[in-house]
User: What shape does this take?
Amino acid sequence: MSPDNAVLIASITGEAVVCGLLVRRKMWPTLPFFCIYFVWVLVSDLASFFIQWKMSPYVFGRYYFAQAFVDAFFQFTVLVELAWSVLQPLRKSLPRGSLIVLNVLIALCGLAIWPMAGMSTPPDLTHLSGILFQLQETVGILRVACFLLMASFSQVLSIGWRDRELQIATGLGFYSIVSLLVTLIHSHQTWSPQYHWLDLASSIGYLGSLTYWVLSFATKEQKRKEFSPQMQQLLLLMGGGARADRMSLGDLPSERSRKRIK
Assistant: This one.
Protein backbone atom coordinates (compact mmCIF):
# COMPACT_ATOMS: atom_id res chain seq x y z
CA MET A 1 0.00 0.00 0.00
CA SER A 2 1.31 3.45 -0.97
CA PRO A 3 1.82 6.14 1.71
CA ASP A 4 -0.91 8.25 0.07
CA ASN A 5 -3.48 5.47 0.32
CA ALA A 6 -2.42 4.68 3.88
CA VAL A 7 -2.92 8.31 4.93
CA LEU A 8 -6.27 8.46 3.12
CA ILE A 9 -7.52 5.30 4.84
CA ALA A 10 -6.32 6.61 8.21
CA SER A 11 -8.11 9.91 7.52
CA ILE A 12 -11.36 8.14 6.64
CA THR A 13 -11.10 6.08 9.82
CA GLY A 14 -10.51 9.19 11.91
CA GLU A 15 -13.41 11.01 10.25
CA ALA A 16 -15.73 8.09 10.96
CA VAL A 17 -14.69 8.13 14.64
CA VAL A 18 -15.25 11.90 14.85
CA CYS A 19 -18.71 11.50 13.28
CA GLY A 20 -19.54 8.85 15.88
CA LEU A 21 -18.43 11.16 18.68
CA LEU A 22 -20.50 14.01 17.26
CA VAL A 23 -23.55 11.76 17.54
CA ARG A 24 -22.58 10.51 20.98
CA ARG A 25 -22.04 14.01 22.35
CA LYS A 26 -25.27 15.24 20.71
CA MET A 27 -23.55 18.19 19.07
CA TRP A 28 -26.11 18.50 16.27
CA PRO A 29 -28.44 20.95 18.13
CA THR A 30 -25.61 23.38 18.92
CA LEU A 31 -23.24 22.98 15.94
CA PRO A 32 -25.33 21.58 13.07
CA PHE A 33 -23.19 22.93 10.21
CA PHE A 34 -20.02 21.42 11.64
CA CYS A 35 -21.82 18.07 11.91
CA ILE A 36 -23.08 18.36 8.32
CA TYR A 37 -19.61 19.35 7.17
CA PHE A 38 -17.99 16.37 8.79
CA VAL A 39 -20.48 13.94 7.31
CA TRP A 40 -19.75 15.56 3.94
CA VAL A 41 -15.98 15.19 4.48
CA LEU A 42 -16.36 11.50 5.31
CA VAL A 43 -18.60 10.79 2.30
CA SER A 44 -16.34 12.86 0.05
CA ASP A 45 -13.18 11.00 1.09
CA LEU A 46 -14.90 7.63 0.67
CA ALA A 47 -15.94 8.69 -2.83
CA SER A 48 -12.37 9.88 -3.54
CA PHE A 49 -10.95 6.53 -2.47
CA PHE A 50 -13.43 4.63 -4.66
CA ILE A 51 -12.88 6.86 -7.72
CA GLN A 52 -9.09 6.61 -7.47
CA TRP A 53 -9.37 2.84 -7.16
CA LYS A 54 -11.93 2.12 -9.87
CA MET A 55 -11.89 5.04 -12.31
CA SER A 56 -9.53 7.03 -14.49
CA PRO A 57 -7.42 10.00 -13.32
CA TYR A 58 -9.55 12.23 -15.57
CA VAL A 59 -12.73 11.29 -13.68
CA PHE A 60 -10.99 11.85 -10.37
CA GLY A 61 -9.77 15.27 -11.50
CA ARG A 62 -13.30 16.35 -12.42
CA TYR A 63 -14.62 15.03 -9.14
CA TYR A 64 -11.87 16.78 -7.17
CA PHE A 65 -12.68 20.15 -8.69
CA ALA A 66 -16.40 19.82 -7.98
CA GLN A 67 -16.04 18.66 -4.39
CA ALA A 68 -13.40 21.30 -3.59
CA PHE A 69 -15.83 24.15 -4.28
CA VAL A 70 -18.55 22.47 -2.21
CA ASP A 71 -16.02 21.89 0.57
CA ALA A 72 -15.07 25.60 0.59
CA PHE A 73 -18.73 26.57 0.95
CA PHE A 74 -19.25 24.21 3.88
CA GLN A 75 -16.12 25.52 5.60
CA PHE A 76 -17.44 29.06 5.30
CA THR A 77 -20.67 28.02 7.03
CA VAL A 78 -18.65 26.34 9.80
CA LEU A 79 -16.63 29.52 10.43
CA VAL A 80 -19.82 31.59 10.64
CA GLU A 81 -21.36 29.01 12.97
CA LEU A 82 -18.34 29.03 15.30
CA ALA A 83 -18.38 32.82 15.55
CA TRP A 84 -22.15 32.87 16.14
CA SER A 85 -21.95 30.10 18.74
CA VAL A 86 -19.23 31.94 20.67
CA LEU A 87 -21.49 35.01 20.77
CA GLN A 88 -24.43 33.01 22.12
CA PRO A 89 -24.47 34.71 25.57
CA LEU A 90 -24.61 38.10 23.80
CA ARG A 91 -27.38 37.37 21.31
CA LYS A 92 -30.13 39.00 23.36
CA SER A 93 -28.27 42.29 23.32
CA LEU A 94 -27.35 42.14 19.61
CA PRO A 95 -29.55 43.96 17.11
CA ARG A 96 -31.75 42.03 14.70
CA GLY A 97 -29.93 40.90 11.60
CA SER A 98 -26.62 40.40 13.40
CA LEU A 99 -26.21 36.94 11.90
CA ILE A 100 -26.49 38.40 8.41
CA VAL A 101 -23.93 41.05 9.32
CA LEU A 102 -21.61 38.33 10.62
CA ASN A 103 -21.90 36.43 7.32
CA VAL A 104 -21.10 39.60 5.39
CA LEU A 105 -18.12 40.44 7.62
CA ILE A 106 -16.55 37.00 7.18
CA ALA A 107 -17.21 37.13 3.43
CA LEU A 108 -15.55 40.56 3.27
CA CYS A 109 -12.56 39.17 5.16
CA GLY A 110 -12.35 36.43 2.54
CA LEU A 111 -12.44 39.02 -0.26
CA ALA A 112 -9.66 40.98 1.45
CA ILE A 113 -7.55 37.82 1.78
CA TRP A 114 -8.20 36.70 -1.83
CA PRO A 115 -5.47 38.82 -3.52
CA MET A 116 -2.90 37.84 -0.89
CA ALA A 117 -3.76 34.15 -1.35
CA GLY A 118 -3.18 34.50 -5.09
CA MET A 119 0.42 35.62 -4.58
CA SER A 120 1.53 32.03 -3.95
CA THR A 121 -0.34 30.50 -6.92
CA PRO A 122 2.06 28.33 -8.97
CA PRO A 123 2.54 29.87 -12.45
CA ASP A 124 2.10 26.57 -14.30
CA LEU A 125 -1.54 26.05 -13.22
CA THR A 126 -4.42 26.45 -15.64
CA HIS A 127 -6.89 29.29 -15.07
CA LEU A 128 -9.48 27.08 -13.34
CA SER A 129 -6.82 25.28 -11.28
CA GLY A 130 -5.42 28.66 -10.23
CA ILE A 131 -8.84 29.84 -9.06
CA LEU A 132 -9.34 26.63 -7.09
CA PHE A 133 -5.88 26.94 -5.52
CA GLN A 134 -6.55 30.57 -4.57
CA LEU A 135 -9.93 29.64 -3.09
CA GLN A 136 -8.42 26.89 -0.94
CA GLU A 137 -5.66 29.21 0.29
CA THR A 138 -8.20 31.93 1.12
CA VAL A 139 -10.31 29.52 3.17
CA GLY A 140 -7.16 28.20 4.85
CA ILE A 141 -6.12 31.70 5.94
CA LEU A 142 -9.66 32.34 7.20
CA ARG A 143 -9.45 29.17 9.31
CA VAL A 144 -6.16 30.29 10.83
CA ALA A 145 -7.56 33.77 11.52
CA CYS A 146 -10.62 32.25 13.21
CA PHE A 147 -8.41 30.13 15.47
CA LEU A 148 -6.07 33.00 16.37
CA LEU A 149 -8.93 35.37 17.18
CA MET A 150 -10.76 32.84 19.34
CA ALA A 151 -7.58 31.80 21.15
CA SER A 152 -6.47 35.42 21.68
CA PHE A 153 -9.84 36.57 23.05
CA SER A 154 -10.71 33.35 24.89
CA GLN A 155 -10.48 35.03 28.29
CA VAL A 156 -12.77 37.88 27.26
CA LEU A 157 -15.22 35.46 25.62
CA SER A 158 -15.10 33.15 28.64
CA ILE A 159 -14.18 30.09 26.60
CA GLY A 160 -11.47 27.52 27.30
CA TRP A 161 -9.80 24.56 25.66
CA ARG A 162 -12.64 22.29 26.79
CA ASP A 163 -15.25 24.36 24.96
CA ARG A 164 -16.28 22.80 21.67
CA GLU A 165 -15.94 26.02 19.67
CA LEU A 166 -12.29 26.49 20.62
CA GLN A 167 -11.57 22.79 20.14
CA ILE A 168 -12.97 22.89 16.61
CA ALA A 169 -11.15 26.13 15.79
CA THR A 170 -7.87 24.67 17.13
CA GLY A 171 -8.15 21.61 14.90
CA LEU A 172 -8.99 23.73 11.88
CA GLY A 173 -6.17 26.14 12.64
CA PHE A 174 -3.51 23.47 13.15
CA TYR A 175 -3.88 21.67 9.85
CA SER A 176 -4.42 24.99 8.04
CA ILE A 177 -1.10 26.32 9.36
CA VAL A 178 0.67 23.14 8.23
CA SER A 179 -0.99 23.34 4.81
CA LEU A 180 -0.11 27.02 4.36
CA LEU A 181 3.51 26.36 5.34
CA VAL A 182 3.70 23.58 2.75
CA THR A 183 2.26 25.92 0.12
CA LEU A 184 4.78 28.63 1.05
CA ILE A 185 7.67 26.19 0.66
CA HIS A 186 6.27 24.95 -2.65
CA SER A 187 6.15 28.51 -3.99
CA HIS A 188 9.95 28.75 -3.56
CA GLN A 189 10.73 25.23 -4.71
CA THR A 190 11.15 23.55 -8.06
CA TRP A 191 9.75 20.07 -8.53
CA SER A 192 11.78 17.35 -6.84
CA PRO A 193 11.12 14.03 -5.07
CA GLN A 194 10.74 16.02 -1.84
CA TYR A 195 7.86 18.01 -3.38
CA HIS A 196 5.36 15.19 -2.93
CA TRP A 197 6.58 14.36 0.55
CA LEU A 198 5.67 17.87 1.64
CA ASP A 199 2.14 17.30 0.34
CA LEU A 200 2.05 14.13 2.39
CA ALA A 201 3.15 16.12 5.43
CA SER A 202 0.13 18.35 4.93
CA SER A 203 -2.13 15.28 4.98
CA ILE A 204 -0.42 14.06 8.14
CA GLY A 205 -1.15 17.46 9.70
CA TYR A 206 -4.82 16.83 8.97
CA LEU A 207 -4.50 13.46 10.72
CA GLY A 208 -3.10 15.32 13.71
CA SER A 209 -6.23 17.50 13.81
CA LEU A 210 -8.47 14.44 13.58
CA THR A 211 -6.59 12.85 16.47
CA TYR A 212 -6.98 16.02 18.52
CA TRP A 213 -10.72 16.13 17.83
CA VAL A 214 -11.14 12.47 18.77
CA LEU A 215 -9.39 13.07 22.09
CA SER A 216 -11.30 16.32 22.70
CA PHE A 217 -14.77 15.06 21.79
CA ALA A 218 -14.24 11.90 23.84
CA THR A 219 -14.46 14.06 26.97
CA LYS A 220 -17.42 16.03 28.26
CA GLU A 221 -17.58 19.70 27.46
CA GLN A 222 -17.18 21.99 30.44
CA LYS A 223 -19.89 24.45 31.36
CA ARG A 224 -19.45 27.99 30.17
CA LYS A 225 -17.65 30.21 32.65
CA GLU A 226 -19.17 33.39 34.00
CA PHE A 227 -18.73 36.54 31.99
CA SER A 228 -15.48 38.35 32.45
CA PRO A 229 -15.64 42.05 33.48
CA GLN A 230 -14.51 42.96 29.97
CA MET A 231 -17.41 41.04 28.44
CA GLN A 232 -19.88 42.64 30.86
CA GLN A 233 -18.64 46.06 29.80
CA LEU A 234 -18.87 45.07 26.14
CA LEU A 235 -22.44 43.92 26.67
CA LEU A 236 -23.34 47.29 28.17
CA LEU A 237 -21.76 49.14 25.27
CA MET A 238 -23.48 46.96 22.67
CA GLY A 239 -26.84 47.17 24.39
CA GLY A 240 -26.77 50.98 24.42
CA GLY A 241 -27.25 53.33 27.33
CA ALA A 242 -31.05 53.22 27.40
CA ARG A 243 -31.23 49.47 27.21
CA ALA A 244 -28.33 49.02 29.60
CA ASP A 245 -30.24 50.92 32.26
CA ARG A 246 -32.98 48.29 32.07
CA MET A 247 -30.57 45.37 32.21
CA SER A 248 -29.10 43.88 35.32
CA LEU A 249 -25.80 42.14 34.97
CA GLY A 250 -26.93 39.81 37.70
CA ASP A 251 -29.55 38.42 35.31
CA LEU A 252 -27.00 37.56 32.65
CA PRO A 253 -26.55 33.83 32.00
CA SER A 254 -23.38 32.57 33.56
CA GLU A 255 -23.37 29.32 31.64
CA ARG A 256 -24.44 28.27 28.20
CA SER A 257 -27.86 26.79 27.54
CA ARG A 258 -27.23 23.98 25.09
CA LYS A 259 -30.86 23.21 24.50
CA ARG A 260 -31.89 26.45 22.86
CA ILE A 261 -30.89 27.52 19.36
CA LYS A 262 -31.44 30.95 17.89
In short: The first helix runs from residue 3 to 24. Residues 241-262 have pLDDT under 50 and may be disordered.
